[in-house]
Amino acid sequence: MLEFKVNSQSQSVDVDPTTPLLWVLRDNLGLTGTKFGCGMAQCGACTVHMDGMPMRSCSLPVSVVAGKQITTIEGLQSKTAQAVQKAWVDLDVVQCGYCQSGQIMSAVALLESKPKPSDEDIDQAMGGNICRCATYVRIRAAIHAAAAQLSA
Amino acid sequence: MRMIDPATAAAIFAADDSATAGLSRRDFLKNTAAVGLVFGLQLAANKKAAAADVGEVAPGAFAPNAFVRIAPDNVVTLVIKHHEMGQGATTGLATILAEELDAELAAVNIEYAPANAALYKNLAFGSQGTGGSTAIANSFEQMRQAGATARSMLVSAAAQRWKVPASSIGVSNGVLRSGAHRATFGELAVAASQQPVPQSVTLKDPSQFKLIGKQQTRRVDSLAKCTGKATYTIDVKLPGLLTAVIERPPAFGAKLISFDARAAKAIKGVTDVVQVAEGVAVVATGMWPAIQGRRALKVQWDGGASGLNTAALYQDYRQRAAGAGGATVTRDPQTAAALASAASRVEAVYEFPYLAHAPMEPLNCVAWLHDGMLETWGAHQFPAFDHALAAKAAGLPMDKVKLHSLISGGSFGRRANAASDFVVEAVNVAKAIGRPVPVRVQRTREDDMRAGWYRPLYVHAVKAGLDAQGDVVGWQHAIVGQSIMAATPMAAGIKDGNDSSSTEGVWPTPYKIPAMTAELHSPTQAVPPLWWRSVGHTHTAFVMETMLDELAHAARQDPVAFRLKLLKDQPRLAGVIRMAADKAGWSSPMPAGKARGFASHYSFDTYVAQVAEVSLKPDGSVRVERVVVAVDCGVSVNPDQIVAQMEGGVGFALAAALYGQIDIAKGTVTQSNFHDYRVLRIDEMPKVDVHIVNSTQAPTGVGEPGVPPLAPAVANAIASLTGHRVRRLPLAGQTFTRA
């Protein structure tokens, strides 16, 4: 049995310890907001927070997660997260939307560590999240908008 | 996959003046609208039968047509007949319905239409499906009629109840009012459903629009997609749902010789290992055991198309382009003489690779065979294909097959597949399991990337001539590439070997080019081809727009002025060209180390011009800093979504221009995932400034038309900066130095 917290709730799962966290979240815990895109930490669709840090859950064996706090898109609650989600909706960032859980998780982690990110900071923090619809113009604008809202 | 047939398009381009061109378009659109009206009336006349076909309609609900349902509890449901893959069709159709209905857009409930061609066909195709940037264009009048009909019946019901003239009743945000009277749609639902269906309804004058054309009209799906609540095929939950991955042929055309499932079956969670037409499926209680089971499989294949190499295809296609025997696309007997006597000539050969769509959600579908029927859950972009082929695979009549259509995590053409490959494989696995359990076949990124259905590899060869004044006098063009339409139900549209999806954008052309001849060679390959966002225009626009740019330079003329000279009877294309040039400051100088490039293109009834501003990175690779876009798509239904599609079109096209390339060696695809099939990332996304032409013409599509001009605009900027003409894509691996 592996024990960890997901969105503040204790979970224990009985799975092969090499199972990537992504599939434990999706197949065992029914949390499907976190998406599968590449399986090799290339696209960021599966981004979650582990103890507040953005991690690619498709390449994170669940054994590594034991005892940790995991936050998924379903568990976002912080003031920063709310500002990010509001900015995303206000600017109609999404198109197909499939990558956006991961984009938002990366953006929230960025703003929690850097409340006023520069464009270069955004490039660095968001460079691991692919959007095939290329909503990047609006992702950038929404991060700046959320930062402005949080500092207002 | 196109709204107008090539003959009609040719007629438009051949028109001698803009008035005639406009009339042709309007006539066509009027006919389309008429279809919608007649269809709406037939539907209304047969209301009960229709209601039975539109899915679940609550008792007491008002369902005046296939698109609007109002329940007594005031839930307003709009039924969307088009697939939502991010392009915003849901918001567009809901906006149009809500506008004429005067419903509150933010409060409506959205449902996707079941497979039912009679009710939900695409009026541009005559069958049910989404593609060719037709969603808004074919639905605009139909959705307006549907919304206005429902509104009219609600108003009649209120007039009767309140004993007031209908003309005294105002409707706004789902509430009817007259004097002191007030009622919600829901309160009038039962009474409205007893009203006669009006024979005709008055549509709003555009000046009365509250939603259409308004910047503040927002997407209806943003919140669900920002909170992880939107349901894609990968998220479908059903009791006992199993997950399958398929071990697929390592080379195109390879056949299974044998497999050993013992080690796979020993993996905890693996329930079945079954042979299907697509390969060997490993079925499990979740994705990870399925993947592990597949790794443990021992499979032997034969060699398949082991002689297939893309490097050799370029050689072969270049030879074909230089040779005879192509199908005639257009022929002017004067071409050879015009070129022979030209004062100067430009000749070039262009190469374009296979391209994968690589939508973010790898392909998948859920199939459940139970109780003598089949249910599927999937991104059914083309129910016309998927319904029939799922039924065939299951061995069931179509009325025993129920499709649940879900949004998709991107498509770019991939999920509109005349072989319904991703649906049929799920049905095949469900059938092979032999138990009445639902199963999702989920592709990994590698499965998706290597399975073919690419934008085909193309080679073009062009010779063009100028006279002493710098005017174009002749144009000889050869195109070589697989036919996309040949293996589809649209093959009947291929006349004398001329597949217009290979040639659209070269011919017909809006440019007045004298003495033009074009030929098409369509070799077959073991790689299945497919349309890819903007189809033939992905390569034809590049060739036309870079060659015109090269000719303008040869003639020592400004590339914008050079184009306009050839577009004297094309006011809308000329209009976006002038607008883009003006907004980009085309005639002003650029700072040292930067250059602009221009391209414009007409596709899917929409006109787009783009100015790309590029610089070189220290390593000699290209950086696109800004793209200015001008677009004329008729009436703007959702202006911000038009902007979004232009931004996205630029980014999607730039990904392909910079990196997009599928190579095949010995029949096997070289690339497999995003590390070797690179796509655009945020640090490479240029600024995009979009300008929309204010128009009262019928609305046309925007999903695809933003794509074609980008690569040629970038290539023309590179030529301006470096003097080097780009003749093959992608740009990756090509380095440039400033002139």
TrEMBL record, chain A:
Keywords: 2Fe-2S, Iron, Iron-sulfur, Metal-binding, Oxidoreductase. GO terms for molecular function: 2 iron, 2 sulfur cluster binding; metal ion binding; oxidoreductase activity. It holds the Pfam family Fer2_2. The keyword Iron-sulfur applies. SUPFAM superfamilies: 2Fe-2S ferredoxin-like (SSF54292), CO dehydrogenase ISP C-domain like (SSF47741). Residues 1-76 form the 2Fe-2S ferredoxin-type domain. InterPro entries: 2Fe-2S-bd, 2Fe-2S-bd_dom_sf, 2Fe-2S_ferredoxin-like_sf, 2Fe-2S_ferredoxin-type, 2Fe2S_fd_BS, Beta-grasp_dom_sf, Diverse_Oxidoreductases. This is Isoquinoline 1-oxidoreductase, alpha subunit. It comes from Hydrocarboniphaga daqingensis.
UniProtKB/TrEMBL annotation, chain B:
The keyword rRNA-binding does not apply. The keyword Signal applies. GO terms for molecular function: oxidoreductase activity. Coiled coil: none annotated. Residues 227-305 form the Aldehyde oxidase/xanthine dehydrogenase a/b hammerhead domain. Keywords: Signal. InterPro entries: Ald_Oxase/Xan_DH_a/b, AldOxase/xan_DH_MoCoBD1, AldOxase/xan_DH_MoCoBD2, AldOxase/xan_DH_Mopterin-bd_sf, N-heterocyclic_Hydroxylase, OxRdtase_Mopterin-bd_su_IorB, TAT_signal, TAT_signal_bac_arc. It comes from the Bacteria. Gene3D superfamilies: Aldehyde oxidase/xanthine dehydrogenase, a/b hammerhead, Aldehyde oxidase/xanthine dehydrogenase, molybdopterin binding domain. This is Isoquinoline 1-oxidoreductase, beta subunit. It comes from Hydrocarboniphaga daqingensis.
